Amino acid sequence: MAQGPTVIQIFALCAISLTAVTLAGAGSIVSQSFPVPRLSVNLDSPPEERWSPAMHHWNLDQMRALFMKTLGQVVPVEALPLVEKIGDVLDDLLPEPYAGEIRGIANTIGIGVGQMAVINMLYEFTAACTSIVAQDANGTIWHGRNLDYNFTDAMRNISAIIDFKSQGKTVYTTTSFVGQVGVFTGMKPYKFTISLNERDKGKAIENIVEMLQALLLGQVKFTTFVLRDALANDNSFDEVVQRFTSEQEVAPAYLIVAGVDPGEGVVITKARVTTVNVWRLDLSGNRWFLLETNYDHWVPPPKDDDRRDPGNKAMNSVGQKNIDNNTMWNVLSTQPVLNDQTIYTTLMSAAKPEIYSTRLRTLPGL
Ligand SMILES: *[C@@H]1O[C@H](CO)[C@@H](O)[C@H](O)[C@H]1NC(C)=O
Ligand SMILES: *[C@@H]1O[C@H](CO)[C@@H](O)[C@H](O)[C@H]1NC(C)=O
Ligand SMILES: *[C@@H]1O[C@H](CO)[C@@H](O)[C@H](O)[C@H]1NC(C)=O
Ligand SMILES: *[C@@H]1O[C@H](CO)[C@@H](O)[C@H](O)[C@H]1NC(C)=O
Hints:
Layout (H helix, E strand, L loop, with lengths): L6 H5 L5 H10 L5 E4 L2 E5 L9 H4 L4 H15 L5 H9 L1 H4 L4 H12 L3 H12 L5 E6 L5 E8 L3 H5 L2 E8 L2 E9 L7 E4 L3 E7 L9 H9 L6 H11 L3 H10 L6 E6 L6 E6 L4 E6 L8 E4 L15 H11 L6 H8 L9 E7 L8 E6 L4
Parallel strand pairs: 2-5
Antiparallel strand pairs: 1-14, 3-4, 3-12, 4-13, 5-6, 6-7, 7-8, 8-9, 9-10, 10-11, 13-14
Helix pairs in contact: 4-8, 5-8, 5-10, 7-8, 11-12, 13-14
The protein binds 2-acetamido-2-deoxy-beta-D-glucopyranose (4 copies).
The site of one 2-acetamido-2-deoxy-beta-D-glucopyranose has 6 residues, from helix 14.
């Protein structure tokens, strides 16, 4: 059984490098991968009810135990009243449909509404670690990501592809942890794909008590909700870029967006309130792909966590002519881009929604 994270571990996401480097040194370790379940959430149902059918894919007693254990480890006793309070005033804190969905999920699992909100807050600070957007020789845009997390065994079990449907049709698709109403990775078919990478490793909000207080003061906007808002409301690459560059989020982040037309690929570097940098594909300048880990692209990555240079090297050796979902899988399977904290790899292309895939990753001996 997985160990739950401590506060330190939660915020140490992606600070993983020593093990990763060792693995890279070992060279050709073969990794395994497994598909995740693909489930539906019906947007035509009320927020309180729409997650329940998907949740029942899991053993809810085990899930409750996992969440309670996690909460026990991250929430100090003196913060418990704050957690209760959040449950009581959730509708004032979070916009719809998020408050209703969290309430419904909490009721389905049988834990407190405030507790479920805190689980969502923890998810908020766990998004990592490598995202790539690339344009092939035909102008097709491809988007891949590895999500790394220092709490892998427990999270691995509760990842799924979720098709959000209305009138029986998929409006958007995400890869999510169960109980998470925000989004790290998603696609609006024939429109755009998005992913979120963490920046500054959660230094922005140092501890859970501060986070809870910020939430109660209405100062916090979940970045993962901004991604879901984009999937729900936007219909083009440009609209998403506009949203991501103008909204204020809870934590510094990298927002990666890919569209359907040539040139539509961008990495947006956000500070908490402002947009720091917008980095686009530039085919005339021979920049046919962008690869973002968890460091600003204009400064060198730290020596002890350099997944960028090996990733760039792998992309360049594939080459623009040969890039597609299969070769991007190979790049995302290169160590240490793939490392012992990688939970899943997602491959997507908004122009080819049928290729959307998420596979769980494991390296042997872990
Ligand atoms: C690009 O188009 C050509 C001609 O239609 C096709 O043979 C080739 O497979 C395409 N390449 C990719 C990467 O889709
Ligand atoms: C998570 O990170 C902490 C500190 O960064 C480390 O001590 C621990 O071994 C890591 N856990 C896993 C499962 O890798
Ligand atoms: C995770 O999956 C393993 C095997 O796949 C299972 O033994 C374990 O009980 C699961 N844990 C949870 C919390 O569902
Ligand atoms: C890439 O997409 C094709 C369908 O076009 C699929 O057959 C193949 O399995 C996909 N590859 C990966 C690694 O997901």
